[in-house]
From TrEMBL:
It comes from the Bacteria. This is Alkaline phosphatase. InterPro entries: Metallo-depent_PP-like, PhoD-like_MPP, PhoD-like_sf. Gene3D superfamilies: PhoD-like phosphatase (3.60.21.70). Residues 1-20 form the signal peptide. The lineage of its organism: Bacteria, Pseudomonadati, Bacteroidota, Flavobacteriia, Flavobacteriales.
């Protein structure tokens, strides 16, 4: 499909930018705009929907914790989803923008929950209803909410790969030795995605011809020192994904994550990849970790944002460039990063 460019952004060079930069005086159109966010309570005001609408995104991506239900009562869960669907500004967004996304523990139904949650199939049904997935969609027959969609823009494309880090995720290891909640499992023990989803993901990456491949993970992939939920609690799965991305030769792989009630950019080099892997965390929409005093993250680029915010990615195919922005109330850009992909 042909996507109409929605707005023009002037390239600003910042300290956390890629080493390869476009000239200061070159004005570039955004060929595609992706907006995303996570951690959204329906009993708290969301002051950001008007700002999301103002970015005129081509797609809105829910990063998880889209409501806070923490329940196996499907009537209560459905009621909360309906409250969110009827929120006036969000309703405007659904009328003008495609909606994609995944879930996390608080809309899945069990805090820090995984494969053991007995109501997960019923919860999946309610989630798919919230996402307006047709009754005859193959997703209705799939275990887990993972899915993908390719967006074609003239001669270019973006492949959205949405993961489910809940349905198959196995037991976590409590940290009884420090003040942290969790510690990494023994290497090789447990899984984030489960066998079926891993096979599906490998095929998605290996078969992709898209200019960019966006992987949506409800929990952080790179940051792994904070002691909360993250891919780092399964270190062998971190390595597996890195090797899979590198071996696939997929172009422009980017990870989007949520969960943490802070927003930040993490970035690393992976052997065999010609560009760095960025994990863009955007959280939360209605409540943030305002008492944040710092935590280690060896992959962090720039500063942590610990006020309510959402994320946008502005794609420019001609320059092979993505502008990443953390946006707060009144459309204020709180942190930004640019990356050129070769």
């Amino acid at each position: 499909m042909k996507i109409i460019s929605f707005f023009i952004c002037t390239l600003l060079l910042v300290s956390c930018s890629s080493n390869k930069k476009v000239p200061d005086n070159e004005i570039l159109k955004s060929d595609f705009v992706l907006a995303f966010g996570s951690c959204n309570r329906v009993d708290l005001p969301n002051l950001l929907w008007d700002d999301v609408l103002n970015t005129k995104p081509n797609v809105w991506v829910w990063g998880g914790d889209n409501i806070y239900a923490d329940t196996d009562d499907m009537v209560a869960l459905r009621a909360m989803y309906n409250v969110q669907k009827e929120q006036p500004e969000y309703k405007k967004l659904t009328e003008s923008t495609e909606i994609l996304g995944t879930w996390d523990d608080h809309d899945y139904g069990l805090n820090d929950g995984g494969v053991e949650f007995e109501a997960k199939d019923a919860s999946q049904h309610e989630f798919l209803n919230f996402m307006n997935v047709p009754n005859d969609s193959p997703l209705r027959k799939r275990q887990g909410v993972y899915n993908s969609k390719e967006y074609e823009i003239d001669d270019h494309s973006i492949n959205m790969i949405v993961l489910d880090t809940r349905y198959f995720r196995t037991k976590l290891t409590p940290d009884t030795e420090t003040s942290k909640r969790l510690k990494p499992n023994e290497y090789g023990i447990g899984t984030m995605l489960g066998d079926a989803q891993w096979r599906w993901l490998e095929n998605e990456l290996n078969s992709s011809k898209s200019d960019f491949n966006i992987i949506v993970s409800s929990v952080q992939y790179l940051s792994d020192e904070h002691g909360f939920e993250a891919w780092g609690n399964f270190p062998h799965e971190v390595d597996r994904l890195a090797k899979m991305i590198s071996a696939s030769k997929a172009q422009g792989v980017i990870i989007l994550s949520g969960d943490r009630h802070i927003s930040e950019f993490s970035k690393t080099e992976i052997e065999g990849m010609t560009y760095p892997l960025i994990d863009f965390t955007s959280s939360g929409l209605t409540h943030a970790y305002r008492n944040f005093t710092g935590e280690p993250n060896k992959f962090r680029v720039g500063e942590v944002v610990f006020t309510e915010s959402f994320g946008i990615l502005e794609f420019n195919f001609g320059a092979k460039k993505v502008d990443f922005k953390i946006v707060g109330d009144n459309g204020i850009v709180l942190e930004k990063l640019e990356q050129v992909y070769e």
